[in-house]
Amino acid sequence: MSSSSAPRFGVNYTPTNGWFHHWLDFDLDEIRADLDSLAALGLDHLRVFPLWPVFQPNRTLVRPRAIEQLVQLVDAAGERGLDVAVDGLQGHLSSFDFVPSWTTTWHRRNIFTDPDVVEAQAAYLSALASALSGRPHFLGMTVGNEVNQFAGAPHPDPDRIDREQAGTWLRRMLDACEKGAPERAHVHASYDVAWYDGDHPFTPAHSARIGAMTAVHSWVFDGTAQRHGHDGVPTEQHAAYLIELSKAWAEDVHRPVWLQEVGAPAPHVPPERAAAFTDATVAAALDCPDLWGITWWCSHDVDRGLADFPELEYGLGLLTHDRRVKPAGEVVARWAARPRRAAAPRQVGLVLDAGDVEGAPLRAQCAPGGAYFEAWMRLAARGSRPASVLVQRVGDAGYLAGRGIEEVVTVGDV
Q1: pLDDT for 272-313, tens place per residue?
Q2: 220: which of 4, 65, 239, 246 lies 20 to 30 Å off by Cα?
Q3: 155-180 as b/e, with b when 16 or more CB fall inside 10 Å?
Q4: Which uninterrupted H or E stretch holds 118?
């Protein structure tokens, strides 16, 4: 997954037939119809989500039939020219937690530190990766979707760990993916508390230094749209900001960044403005060097016959539940059809002092409303295309040159 080529366009696949519960009533014809509607948009990849309790209902049982169905989905996508990245530990999706019974209630144990659970997770991830390793359209594994949300508040029943334990767990999971499918692009993904909360055990250094590339998830309901409006510069630049913020911690100056989730959530982005927001967000993200790709959330709207989703989750699709293309889908299709090239370097670096590099205890300033966030956005509003630089790297001329940064400014300068 080189970042030197043109960024890719894809989508997080939400099946029309039963949402992610489709694994319980797997229908390959319905999946093929969904995939046809996505290929028609000109996309080149999908991110798909096995449900952990369905695939591994017992600690020592990974269901062969479930894996066979996953392979069938990947093969069907490949037949349509769509590459596939597979998440493993679901984990958490659209406000619902999917954890197996052998980790809860009478069997309650920490999913990050209990030795039996960790070994079972590793075996599961390795089994999925191994089954897909021979498929040319298989991109690699993501450990799970925002699994970091299990590690602290606001989760109602968190599995508490510290920073060192989080890093140990991530490396163990990624090693398992590599064992199953060597030399694929295996990554992990946190929601943005990892960038914004200095007490959270999953850190920016974890995201930017562990795995084949950095994955960021951009959601403007995190306070950005509430503070700046649906069409404010910070709202439209939020995804680009997270991409650039992540690079401050990367040791490789050209480490690829995957905008793995981004969407237009109502009412923070009114439905009639979703297309404009999508257009602005994509344009801003494509102006970031070393972007591997953009994977929109999500493919199809959630069936309103399914209950208890937060209201915003029902309408995030690029297509309706009956596979009609929505205005935001038309925007993404137009972008996917355009010639693209890697973005030019960003020459102005905004200095960030988040405390020690590994723990980043002062990262709250990076959140919407924080001093660093707001300064970065002021620069963006002036058209200066800011990058992010840790204060520890300001005196490293070789590092700055490698990123193409010619000037550094502080928050106080902006």
Answers
A1: 999 999 999 999 999 999 999 999 999 999 999 999 999 999
A2: 4
A3: eeeebebebebbbebbebbbebbbeb
A4: helix 115-132
Run of H or E including 119: helix 115-132
Full set of structural domains in the chain with CATH = 8-337 (3.20.20.80), 348-413 (no CATH)
Backbone φ and ψ of 239, nearest 5°: -65, -45
Task: Please give the DSSP secondary-structure letter assigned to residue 235.
Answer: H
- 95 with 310: CB under 8 angstroms? yes
Q: Which residue, 138, 143, 109, is CA-closest to 125?
A: 143
Closest CA to 36 of 300, 305, 314, 340: 300
What tokens does 3 get?
A: 């970042």
Q: How many CA atoms lie within 13 A of 362 on its CB side?
A: 11
Tens-digit pLDDT profile for residues 100-123: 999 999 999 999 999 999 999 999
Helix crossing, 274-286 with 233-247: angle to 10°? Answer: 30
Give the position of tokens 């199809």: 300
Rounded to 5°, angle at Cα 11 from 341 and 278: 70
Cα separation, 168 vs 197, in Å, equals: 20
DSSP notation for 260-313? EEE---TTTS-GGGHHHHHHHHHHHHHTSTTEEEEEES-SBPPPTTS-S--GGG
CB atoms near residue 297 (< 10 Å): 22
**SS3 annotation, 124-157:** HHHHHHHHHCCCCCEEEEEEEECHHHHHCCCCCC
Question: SS3 of 245, please?
Answer: helix
- pLDDT tens, 384-394? 999 999 999 99
| Nearest Cα residue to 326 out of 274, 289, 279 | 274
Mean pLDDT, residues 138-149 taken together: 97
The whole-number average pLDDT for the span 223-241 is 97
Query: Could you tell me whether strands 348-352 and 407-409 are parallel, antiparallel, or unpaired per DSSP bridges?
Result: parallel
SS3 348: strand
Q: Which two tokens stand for residue 45?
A: 């990849």
Question: Angle CA(342)–CA(13)–CA(311) in degrees, nearest 5?
Answer: 110
